[in-house]
Amino acid sequence: MKQADDIIKDYCGDIDRRIKACKSRDVAELLKQRLCSELQRNCQSSMINDILIDHVDKLIQNIFDKSGHNKYLEKNYEKN
Fold it and tell me: pLDDT digit of tens for each residue in the chain (80 aa)?
């Protein structure tokens, strides 16, 4: 039987990379909604959906500053 992480990756792709590509927290939240709806359409397990939500929430918390800016993208902009 597949692990929850494998199922999420099958339906949602590389979530870390997708969230890190978002310019703002608002865009990341919209992506989160999209990822959740994609997974729910294909996977009926509420446990797996909860794992996805928890994982994305943690990513958003770590990637975006208090102003809602992506810390990783800001560093790249400053270098250029």
Answer: 578 888 899 989 999 999 999 999 999 999 999 999 989 998 889 999 999 999 999 999 999 999 999 998 866 555 54
Q: Are 11 and 39 in contact (CB under 8 A)?
A: yes
Among residues 13, 17, 15, 30, the alpha carbon closest in space to that of 73 is found at 17
* Composition of the chain by helix, strand, coil, percent to 5: 75, 5, 20
- What's the token pair of residue 12? 């949602």
12 vs 35: CA distance, rounded Å: 6
Helix (H, G, I), strand (E, B) or coil at 2: coil
Q: CA dist 43 to 6, 32, 35, 79, Å?
A: 12, 16, 12, 42
